[in-house]
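Example record

One chain of 476 residues, shown exactly as stored in the release files.
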Amino acid sequence: MSRDRELSFRAVAAAAEAARARCTFPRASAPTGLLPAGPSFLGTPCPWRFQLRYVSYSGPTISPQEVRQHWEQRTPIEARPPVRHGDLLATGLKMGDSVLIIDGNFHQERAVRHKEILVLLDAGVSVHGCSSLGALRAAELCRYGMVGHGTVFARFRSGELEGDDEVAVAQASADDVRAVSVPMVRVREWVALAAETGVLGGNDRAAEFIDTARNIYYPLRSMPALTKAWRGVGHDGVNLCAWLTSMLGRDARFGDVKWVDAVGALRALPQPGQHLASDRYTSERDLGPWWRTPLVNAWSDRYASAHDRPSHRERVLYQQVFGIDFSSHWREYMEILSLDESLRLVDRLHTILPYVRPANIETASELWCPQLPTSPGDFDVLLRDESAADVERLVAYLQLWRWDLARESGPSDLSALQIEHALSQIWGVPRGGLGREARARGFASREDCLTSTPKVLLGHLYDQHRRRAREEPDLS
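Predicted structure tokens for this chain:
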């Protein structure tokens, strides 16, 4: 082995040791029964975790730093940036936890889906919303248990407000979440207060100023843009701009109903113990099966691995590579997917393709590779032989793989030859038979196998290297 390769392997080895030390996947011997049992879809439940969690998502409305300043409960709050698609599923929230959605990304990134919130509600998580995207989602999902707070939520709920641009703002940059435009709900508040104090010629002119502001595209609706547009309306517009400049000079939060709602929601979140005391915050509501689609299950599974819990697909990948009898489990899975239970899959394929002899099930693997299931319960056949040790080893392998990808020097790419040699040893087949064996284990092709397996093979090769290092005598 070259010196550069040896140094690279030492770095990988050091990371693997750190990954093993951080491995926190619950063991089979962990205590149970300390909390009421409840549905868990975001990973293996941790019933021995006593600390309930509070998580908030905010940015342009109220910064995460301000959230912590206005938080009055003893349990700390995890103040995070605006929520995106997948964030809620990646937090590992459990029954009794609370999450407050204030702000969320939607223009530059995929917005949080309604069904992601339903997933949390179904698991007994207390989900709250206010001010911005949180108020929108709460108005849409309050009938299913999401709790809304504040004036903006109430107006959306009543139908007084309808457009997304009522709360939408542009932010400075990806790293700077400060708002650089003005939401319509704040414009409405300014105009209403101006009309009440007699700044405008009459209440009949308020609608004209609101329409003028709304005609400005929401990310361009800045204070300079509003001032320019309103000054063109006439004398009342000039008076409105002068009055508003004066009021904002005294209080930068003047008319900021979104900020007021956010502070109020932070103070209204339930105390520890209230979550399970009220049906409003428990998972006893039956949302029915209509909403849990294959796509929702796929999201839950994909983002589960974001908090050091392997997804079902990653667990299946480990068994595809290292499971001794996985090919037989894959055959059983293919039979289960057969539409005609009275006729074996290979026999049915023979009736469709007479030139294919139904000699063995591998014939079906050559012609058809079904997708992996999306519902957690459907993985039972493929994970039948999985042990707690398998999962623990997989967690360490995945941590090592992610660390290797993030190295400044670049990942230590495994060559096709290295992968083929490792799989040939694990499966006990010659390299020429890897394609057939890969298809028998559920890979779509030899190429699919070569691109999918490095995720777990890097850790396996490190384990081999460490064993050889222990066995070789020290000749120094």
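Notes: Strands lie at 54-57, 77-80, 98-101, 126-130, 147-149.
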